[in-house]
Amino acid sequence: MSYAQSNSWFTKKFDDTRVFKYGFKAAINLPLEADFSMLKGDRSLSGEMGFFFRIGEQYAAEMGLELYFNKRYFSDRSPFLTSMIETRYIQLPIRFRYIFFTHQYHQFHGAVGLIYQQLLQVSHNNVGYSKKELIKSPFLLTIGMGYTYQFLSFELNYRYFLRNFDIDRTKNKQKQLNLSMYLTF
After folding, report:
1. pTM for this one?
2. Residues in the chain with pLDDT < 50?
């Protein structure tokens, strides 16, 4: 193995002591509640993409800016069809990470945080909802575990919405399983 190969960033171990790191994130969210879709193959689904920056080593604070998109089926107490709505949010996650274990190219970490969302658009729905009927600034709690191999991280997070997505306060609050992938520089 030549000197150039042994010192490339693909083969280095976790001896990176930079305090400031940044990168990109993409994620998919699966609902942990009843999915009221009546169309085969259609399911409630949401995702997000954006960028983040992290300050710290073993203990780190992380903040990001992401676009969150959501297609949700829910029961609207209607004897006809279930309700469907598509929305877009900008979200600001603030999380704290702790690295439990590091071995050569592998890391295991935990994360906990709060996510603020701001409603941008109601793009499509069959209930006649507009921005007036939706909560414009929901907050979410998030907690999860992750695995990092060199510069690529995968996380599994549980998310709990602190407010309902619409003004009907009798509905259950959303819960999601978040599968995230991070590319860190």
Report:
1. 0.83
2. 1-12
